[in-house]
Amino acid sequence: MFKFLGDFLPIIIVGLSLGSLFGLVGLAFTVIINASQLVNFAQGDFAMFGVAVCWFALTVLNVPLWLAFPLGVIGAALFGLLTEKVIITPLQRRGARPFTMILGTMAIGIIAAGAVGAYTKFWWMKINPFLGSEPWRLLKLPIDHQGVMIIFATVVLVIGYWVFLNKTRLGLALRATGFNRDVSILLGIQTAKMVGLSFLISGVISGIAGILCAPLSAFNAIQGLPLAINGFIAVIVGGWGNPYAALLGGITLGLVRALLTGYLSSAYAEMATFFVLIIVLTLRPQGLFSRFMIPESKKN
Amino acid sequence: MVSRVKRDFIVLFVVLGLAAVLPLMVREIYLYLVRLIGIYAIMALGLNIFMGYCGQVNIGVAGFFCIGAYIPTVLQDKLGWHYLIAFPISAFVSLFVGWGMSWPLLRLRGHSMAIGTIAFAMAVYLLFERFPTITGGSDGTVVPAMTLFGQTMGNIFYYYLILVFFAVAFLICYFLANSQIGLALRAVRDNEEAAAAMGVDINHYKRLAWLVNGVLAGIAGSLYAQQAGFISPDTFALSTNVLVLVMLCVGGPGTILGPVVGAAIMTILPYLLVKIQQYTLLMQGLVLFAVLRFLPDGVVGTISKRFRST
Amino acid sequence: MAWWELFPNASDPLNLAILKGRAFMLNVKEISKDFGGLRALHQVDLVVRAGTITALIGPNGAGKTTLINLISGVYGPSEGTISFEEKRIDRFPPHKVAEIGIARTFQLTKLFEGMSVLENVMVGAHPWARNSRFFPTVLHLPKVRCERDDICEYAMKMLKLIRVEHLANAPAGNLPHGQQRLVELARALTTKPKLILVDEPAAGLNPHEEGMLQEALKSIVDTGITILLVEHHMRLVMRISHWVYVLDVGKMIAHGTPEEIGKNPLVVKAYLGKEY
After folding, report:
1. Which end of chain C is more exposed for a tag (fewer CB within 10 A), N or C?
2. Residue C17 lies in a domain
């Protein structure tokens, strides 16, 4: 029994942490989708860039962690804002097709990956676990503290996001822009700034998620797009357009992967993501948690 | 309209003729580049039908490229079959896989379908990486040299083989684009609702474009593998998807020459501008960004629009 | 050969007796449509007789475009049936509806912006262009080339019928509004339809353009094609329709000849809000 817990608990923690990474990236996606119907293919690169800035601060500038972490998050947020300014707004002003917007975000992502890669020679950007390499012991069971931190941070982030969205005026303006852009403009909401805000928030969330998970799941320059794909899959599995569903979708994927890696082998774990996707698309295309936390009036 | 077709054919024959005599005139390094251009042009032509004409997004071309490269290699290596038999088989495999994937993919709306295509490419990559006993895994496999009438075929042979397939692919895409089918594809791109109201079966045409894309990419893969002599899954990773996409956007999506010109530019550019390999990804991103922002119709598209207005 | 000889079903001018003798072409029976909790149409009946211009009018939001979308297959009804020439079509997807002979235009014009006007109209040939399959096309067989020329010729004829043939090579995206509507009509005609659903064609047209539209619609019905005209503009409807249906808040409140409808107090009330 004890042995079982000893094996099972780390797997659960890894699953929840990895799942939180996917889920938070998926949530960040959904923020942008809800505000502007745009699908941001550079989402994973937001996280990667945050990790890159943090790593750079830590290893090259020798800045302590408590400073490097926020620097990384700010880096990711600024990158998000830059994406919006440099490609989204100009293309939208021109009336570009959605196809072009997708490629545009991809281009920004590739530039980031290429730039970071050129500097790091595409090698891993190693960040050490925040609290050292000795796991905590709870009744002699090893507990990965990084994983616990990730889970804790995810809960805080999601609650913070919910509070922002539902209890602040700015959050209300953001929601309004997402529901009906034209009416929002008429009501005096600066919708362009709202879209920029959604990119900023998305960058912050991705950055935090990335940096927290970097000690567990190593990042290199080209980790961005695979992460974005996993985030997307989390959104599809969870439920399109629902940020909390995306988070749950990601956690589901993370747990499935961790369980498969722990009890079978890691080779199956990555394929498993695609299997889950296909199963969900076939049996429940609207997503597993699509109704989660949707207020009553929308449920019909 | 008739004279335009005749003019296009004359241009094509001239270009093919020049290409045919090239090996007698230039060094091997240039022939290598032309071979690569031919291979990428075939892929870009296929992608153009799906993206440029049908208006869908495919970021997973490398999936078919990978299948097309590995199937003949494995068939030659493990079963001893000859390339000329393995090649058509691999084209059929691409067709079959493409047909199978089209059903779930077409159930996804717009953006999700784009994600689906890259998920497909990633799945293919993982599949070929995880079976080292058959595919050599991440270490790669040596592609058995092809023999014909007892002679081992060399680079010149592959050069002409690629040229022939390029010509065939070009003609197929040319006839497709300038036909009623081409009109139907563009209708799907421009306005699905109106296209359906005019009798165009949206899913049928999307599937058709996807299959053309997949089979051409598979053929390109088979040609690539054989002339390279060595393949590993890394060749078919993310960067290839991006590269072909950039080629199409630079050349001009929705034009017939665009993919060819784009393939030429993006194959030659790394060799001209950038000596250090680690900058290629950055360069590709910058080129894509510049094209999307400032030259949305690509090189060929912009030039032909200038001509039309004068 | 005069253009009216193209269409073998050319008919004589109609009067009421002949009208009543015409066969049912489109039969909409007890159609209801729900969108979530909202009932857009309730138990609607409508009949279109062959060779006529039948109008569907009603205030904004009455459900006219919903009904057109149901007929053309954009979505299916919640209740009721739709039949065309005795065959059930209510579950048909839009491209199948086009294949059996029902064409349509759109309230907000949906031209293919990446093509010229002629190419737009040529797309309309799709339901009957049977020779343009994949393999014959890529092999560039003569029958494919022949068919392409036929399609091109026919499309030009349709443009001439609507009197906009001078626009053939213009890019479709840059046309003024009124001309876009006429091109859409030409495109719908190219499908060789038996019935055209024309959705609010007069919206936003100036009087000159409205005159051209009226001539175009008359030309079309004179060639034997039936028209179901959805309109908000009473003037045009009264001038050219043979039979009028009035829809209000999802229900059919009246139908009859234009004169009868003009005098119907229910109709007046629906449009103007009080009895006159």
Report:
1. N
2. yes
Asked whether the predicted pLDDT for residue C13 surpasses 50, the reply is no
Contact between chains at A108 and B108 (C-beta distance less than 8 A): no
Rounded to whole angstroms, the Cα distance separating C273 from A81 reads: 52
Q: What is the CATH number of the domain that holds C14?
A: 3.40.50.300
ipTM of the complex: 0.86
Torsion angle of alpha carbons C37, C42, C43, C45, nearest 10°? -140
Q: Which of residues 213-272 of C touch B (CB under 8 A)?
A: none
Does A128 lie at the interface with B, CB-CB under 8 angstroms?
A: no
Q: Which residue has the higher pLDDT, B226 or B93?
A: B93
Contact between B167 and B14 (Cβ < 8 Å): no
Q: Is the CB of residue A285 less than 8 Å away from at least one CB of chain B?
A: yes
Note the CATH architecture for domain A2-298.
Orthogonal Bundle (1.10)
**Mean pLDDT in residue range C88-116:** 93
| End-to-end Cα, chain A, rounded Å | 46
Nearest to B115 among A121, A232, A282 (CB): A232
CATH class of B30-309: mainly alpha
**B85-93 own/partner pairs: CB under 8 Å, 24+ apart:** B86/B222, B87/B219, B87/B222, B90/B218, B90/B221, B90/B222, B91/B215, B91/B218, B91/B219, B91/B222, B93/B67, B93/B218
Question: What residues does each domain of chain B span?
Answer: 30-309
What is the reported pLDDT for B128? Answer: 83
Q: Is residue C43 part of a domain?
A: yes
C-beta of residue A138 within 8 angstroms of C-beta of residue A120: no
Q: What percent of chain B has pLDDT over 70?
A: 95
- When divided into structural domains, chain C yields a total of 1
Average pLDDT over residues C36-41: 89
Which among A103, C116, A112, C133 has a CA at the least distance from the CA of B47?
A: A103
A250 falls in which pLDDT band (50, 70, 90)? very high
Domain that holds residue C228: 10-272
Look at B29-38, B125-134, C118-127, C227-236 and tell me which has the smallest mean pLDDT: B125-134
| In a domain? residue C1 | no
Asked whether the predicted pLDDT for residue B133 surpasses 80, the reply is no
| A111:B286 CB<8 A | yes
Residue B21 has pLDDT above 90, yes or no: no
d(CA A75, CA C101): 59
Return the DSSP state at B161: H
B interface test, pick of C138, C143, C184 with most B CB neighbours within 10 Å: C138
pLDDT-derived band at C16 (thresholds 50, 70, 90) equals low
Q: Which of residues B243 and B308 earns the better pLDDT score?
A: B243
Distance set, CA C255 to CA C201, C246, C252, C262, C271 (Å)? 21, 6, 8, 11, 15
pLDDT at C275: 44
Q: pLDDT grade, residue A102 (50/70/90)?
A: confident
Mean model confidence pLDDT for chain A: 84
Nearest-Cα distance to chain A for B284, in Å, is: 8
Residues of chain B with Cβ-Cβ distance to A236 below 8 Å are: 112, 115
pLDDT, one tens digit per residue, over A120-159 is: 888 888 888 877 777 777 766 777 788 888 888 999 999 9
Contacting partners of chain C (3+ CB pairs under 8 A): B
Residue at C146 is within a domain: yes
Task: Answer whether C93 touches B (CB < 8 Å).
Answer: yes
Cβ within 8 Å, pair C132-B193: no
Domain boundaries, chain A: 2-298
How many angstroms separate the CA atoms of C253 and C162, rounded?
33
User: What pTM does this model have?
Assistant: 0.88
CA distances from A82 to A32, A76, A203 (A): 14, 10, 10
Nearest C-alpha neighbor of C52 from the set C5, C102, C15: C15
E-state strands within C50-180: 53-57, 79-84, 87-88, 102-104
